[in-house]
Amino acid sequence: MTASPALPARPDAAAPILAVRDLKAHFRTNHFGVKRYVKAVDGISFDVRRGEIYGLAGESSSGKTTLIKTIAGAIKPPLEVVGGTVDFAFLPGYGGLHRAPPAEVARIRWRHLSYIMQGSMNVLNPVRRLRATFADFARSHIDASDRQFEQAVVDHLARVKLDASVLTAYPHELSGGMRQRATIALATICRPDFIIADEPTTALDVVVQKDVLGMIRGIQREIGSSVLFVTHDMGVHAHLTDRLGIMYAGRLVEEAATAEIFRRPLHPYTRHLISSLPRIGDDIQRKGLEGSPPSLADPPPGCRFHPRCPLAMAACSERVPDMVETEPDHRVACFAVNGDQAP
Ligand SMILES: Nc1ncnc2c1ncn2[C@@H]1O[C@H](COP(=O)(O)OP(=O)(O)OP(=O)(O)O)[C@@H](O)[C@H]1O
Predict the structure, then answer these.
(1) Is 278 helix (H, G, I), strand (E, B) or coil?
(2) Shortest CA distance to 227 belongs to which of 257, 247, 183, 197?
(3) Ligand 1 contact, 262 CB (< 6 A)
(4) Cα of 61 to ligand 1 centre, how many Å?
(5) How far is the CA of 40 from the centre of ligand 1 (A)?
(6) Confidence (pLDDT) at 3
(7) CB 188 within 8 A of CB 111
(8) Ligand 1: distance of its center to the CA of 320 in Å?
(9) Helix segments in the chain, DSSP class H
(10) pLDDT for 283-293, tens place per residue?
(11) 58 lines ligand 1 (CB under 6 A)
(12) pTM
């Protein structure tokens, strides 16, 4: 086994905890004998730094879930990784969980890498009481006596404002907010280095959502984890994430500190996302974008946003713009912003 070129084998505080390079993951579909590839993730590169919450935004079907599934190694047919690498600092040398031996994946799961999913019932076993579920997930990773383990679970539940009595409950006996807090407790009890969160608050009402987001932020600060947080909700990103990547049709089109994206969005698609957010006291009728997102089975050539882009020029339909660091820590893939760098 050789160390990945993207990340050193020894922990280095300055190195990213996750480096994704030119990742491509496509769905191979077969409709009545016609083979098609849905290019859901098509050449994505970005880093997540230690201790940050990195947000991924983009409208429905832009490929966010496919991207994090690929990063998490949850790859099942018809999804295929067709190129690129995913390097976690705690799993160097393989280029992705999907290429690592199952024993290595089991070693890092929950202890180094954990998940908070959209539906809590995907994680909580409906026929097991919570005490048993905590034991299933965490007992083998925490070196303690049974009594100490139980106390650690109770203390950790208190962090997400859950009483010890929930340990005797089945998931269906808890409210949606309580279940989601229980999944946050499960995902964080082993103090993982990295947490992947996929729309964890989308199904909750606004008040519970705020509570749950505050808990994710609080626990993340306390244990120092890095978080990759996916939601289409720009309001959630504004409150929670440190840096933000904007996806459009299977590609990353812009990345910067979240405050910077809201202050000075550069890509025309990001500008549209930001300008369409409702503001208090503002009753201006907002103009939608012309057209709709492309089919990822047959995306347009060049920049995938060009058919809808108010700034489109000839190069946009001919070549794919690279993500260019336009300003320190602000990358954008757009010829209209960066100029056409063709030789
Ligand atoms: N099993 C599948 N087979 C074929 N295509 C799929 C499959 N799952 C997803 N896709 C397609 O992949 C593309 C990206 O979907 P994905 O779910 O990753 O987007 P998303 O940004 O997470 O959307 P949402 O916010 O609605 O969850 C879409 O075009 C979708 O139709």
Answers:
(1) coil
(2) 197
(3) no
(4) 5
(5) 7
(6) 37
(7) no
(8) 22
(9) 64-71, 102-108, 130-138, 146-159, 176-188, 206-223, 234-240, 258-263, 268-275, 335-338
(10) 666 666 778 88
(11) yes
(12) 0.90
